[in-house]
Design a protein that fits this description.
single chain, mainly alpha, globular
Length: 364
């Protein structure tokens, strides 16, 4: 909000930013190759491969609790819906992952499914949030480096931002999980309730796959929007989100072809699946970091083509949304409360399920 005393200057500043954003998008469409080259140069100069390796390493430790969480959801959902959610989850994972990666995850998922239950679900959720926030923190650091920003926020604020992003991404993942596993059943229920017929069911089963792609793109956009230490305008995050999504799909497909030809499992034995999983996470992390570099390159182009504003000397000041000190202070407090909320909420969540299970054991 603009204060009354500086309302005119604030409005002029916002108009300049909007005009600059439009110029940046035109510049991107006019010279995409140049922007991609600049992004790759920035990626190499910022040690993007090293940052991606750190993120992949932390993602490895986030995967077990994440698998516990989704396998537990499948077990609970199967009990209450009568749908064999676990087998559907395995089928979708087998369709979407390289064979060696799926084989490694399948063993863990089956082990978790045998011990499934609501108690394990609550444990997996809390552990997945914390472990996932460590991986997100590495990605946040890489995106800040791409933008030339020094994240000088205190530890509580940084951890709160990572937890908040992890929670938001988890909600998107749960929604994606529901569409993958229960999408057909949901479509049938909607068609039956509103008497929409078979045509709606057919359209639903076609449309839900692009929706999943849009949700993945939205997850990347969320990272690129809220990860930087300074808030940036929404229009500048679109190029990186779109290109990163496309590159990730192409890279995953190419990686699957490579694995079908190379067969690393024959050379490394049981370790082959683990090595392939690490490589897959590493490639995914590279794509995410590269998307951040693309957004940074777009904003640098915007700065070079738009009039310089009186909001500081940093090259990204032109793209930052005006933030009052009170708003910045509120953001820090919100991050602090996010940390406390996750801890207290996790304790209450686990306690409720322990009480409902009577003797403290999982009810399943």
């Amino acid at each position: 909000m603009c204060a009354a005393s500086r309302n005119r200057d604030c409005i002029q500043g916002n108009q300049a930013i909007v005009s600059g954003e439009q110029g940046a998008m035109k510049e991107f469409y006019r010279d995409p190759i140049g922007i991609l080259k600049e992004a790759v140069q920035g990626f190499m100069g910022d040690d993007g491969t090293g940052m991606a390796a750190e993120a992949a390493y932390r993602l490895v430790f986030a995967l077990p609790p994440l698998m516990i969480f989704f396998a537990s959801i499948s077990a609970v959902a199967s009990q209450y819906t009568g749908i064999d959610a676990f087998d559907r989850l395995l089928d979708r994972a087998e369709d979407g992952l390289p064979e060696e990666v799926f084989g490694t995850l399948e063993l863990v998922l089956q082990s978790v499914e045998e011990q499934g239950g609501v108690g394990l679900l609550s444990f997996g959720l809390i552990l997945a949030l914390w472990s996932g926030s460590n991986a997100i923190a590495a990605i946040v650091k890489a995106i800040n480096r791409a933008h030339g920003l020094e994240d000088d926020r205190n530890f509580v604020v940084q951890r709160g931002v990572s937890l908040a992003l992890t929670l938001g991404l988890s909600l998107l993942m749960i929604s994606s999980f529901a569409l993958l596993v229960f999408g057909e059943a949901i479509g049938n229920e909607i068609a039956g309730f509103f008497n929409l017929g078979d045509l709606f069911t057919l359209l639903w089963n076609i449309v839900r796959w692009p929706v999943l792609l849009i949700m993945f793109m939205g997850a990347l956009a969320m990272l690129y929007k809220f990860a930087p230490a300074e808030r940036v305008n929404r229009a500048a995050i679109l190029p990186g989100s779109i290109i990163a999504t496309i590159v990730w799909l192409v890279a995953s497909y190419a990686f699957s072809i490579y694995l079908s030809l190379a067969d690393p499992g024959s050379a490394y034995g049981v370790l082959g699946g683990i090595l392939v999983l690490l490589l897959f996470l590493y490639i995914s992390s590279i794509v995410i970091v590269l998307g951040g570099e693309i957004n940074a390159a777009v904003m640098r182009r915007l700065h070079g083509s738009a009039p310089v504003m009186e909001r500081g000397d940093h090259p990204l000041d032109l793209y930052r949304e005006p933030i009052d000190n009170a708003v910045a202070s509120t953001g820090g407090k919100a991050a602090t409360w996010a940390v406390l909320g996750v801890l207290v909420g996790g304790a209450i969540f686990g306690g409720l399920f322990r009480r409902n299970s009577g003797d403290g054991s999982p009810p399943l």
